[in-house]
Amino acid sequence: MYTAFLEASLRMRVAAISFVAAKFMFVGTALSMLISNTLTIFSLSLYGALVLLSIVLSLWEGLATKKNSKMSLGLDFHDTISYDPKFFVNLIKSWPGDVYIITGTPPSKLYEVEEALNELGLGSTHYKTILGGYEYDKSQMGLSHFKKMARHKLKLLQKHNIEVYFDDNPFYVSYIKDHGISTFQPIVSRDYLEEFEEADPFFTCNLQKMQFDYLESLEDCELLKKNNA
User: Fold this and answer.
1) Do 35 and 102 have their domain in common?
2) Are 84 and 164 found together in one domain?
3) What pLDDT digit, counting tens, does each position of 207-217 carry?
4) Are residues 102 and 176 in the same domain?
5) Staple partner for 177: which of 17, 58, 127, 183, CB 3.0–4.6 Å?
6) Are residues 89 and 133 in the same domain?
7) CB of 101 closer than 8 Å to CB of 75
8) How many Å apart are CA 136 and CA 16, to the nearest integer?
9) CA end-to-end distance (rounded Å), the chain
10) Structural domain includes residue 214
11) Average model confidence (pLDDT) across the chain
């Protein structure tokens, strides 16, 4: 019992002490009735205050625990929310916990994401904040950029205690999934991939096409070998 008391929150420890003190005060009130009316009134007032304090702190703790039990949601914007706005807008508006937009967009261009969200009907009341990437030169991008961004996004998720995350990028979900965060990857359609294929073959969701290319060359013998291993 003593260990449980030490492990409890400060509010619950004070509530427990107040409740025990109220019990002693109840006995004291009975004794004070034998001494004087003034002392009795004082004892009753103190007893009531201790009981009230215990109740208020217990309710406060309960509300805080209930609020903290709601899982926080993080979502990438480009090719995640923007890929299926209807689904993700409904998800964001109905999510019971905090919602964060996690984007690789540089801080200097976060206003573009905010404007795009507004166009989808998502204002600042629908999410807690937009967490951006870092400044970079797009012309200098390479695979190292995606690996660095994966680490950057993970730090943001951990800093804000985000427990559920959606992102289309294979680099990011492959890295984040192994760090205690429930990670989901929206799989974009072939038509969507083809639409953006010419736009920017390295920066856009075309990375997903490479993710599944191995399926086209997979042989039965390879699959059976893996199953028998």
Assistant:
1) no
2) yes
3) 777 777 777 77
4) yes
5) 183
6) yes
7) yes
8) 54
9) 50
10) no
11) 81
CA dist 203 and 159 (Å) reads 26
CA nearest to 90, candidates 104, 102, 75: 75
pLDDT 10s digits, 28-57:
666 667 677 776 676 667 666 766 677 776
pTM (two decimals):
0.66
Residue 134: name the closest of 157, 115, 110 by CA. 110
CATH of the domain at 117: 3.40.50.1000
Question: Domain of 35?
Answer: 2-68
Same-domain check for residues 98 and 163: yes
As a whole number, mean pLDDT of residues 157-176 equals: 94
Whole-angstrom distance, CA of residue 226 vs CA of residue 209: 23
Which residues contact residue 43 at a Cβ distance below 8 angstroms, ignoring those fewer than 6 apart?
A: 25, 28, 29, 32
Alpha-carbon distance values, 223 to 211, 213, 216 (Å): 17, 15, 13
pLDDT, position 207 = 75
Does residue 157 carry a pLDDT above 70? Answer: yes
118 & 14 share domain? no
Q: CA-to-CA distance for 19 and 50, rounded, in angstroms?
A: 7
pLDDT, tens digit, for every residue of 99-126?
Answer: 999 999 999 999 999 999 999 999 999 9
For residue 60, pLDDT over 80 is answered with: no
Domain count, the chain: 2
Report the C-alpha gap between 227 and 225 in whole angstroms: 5
Query: Partners of 131 in the beta sheet?
Result: 102
What does the block give as tokens for 211?
């993710």
Question: What's the pLDDT score for residue 184?
Answer: 95
Amino acid at 4: A
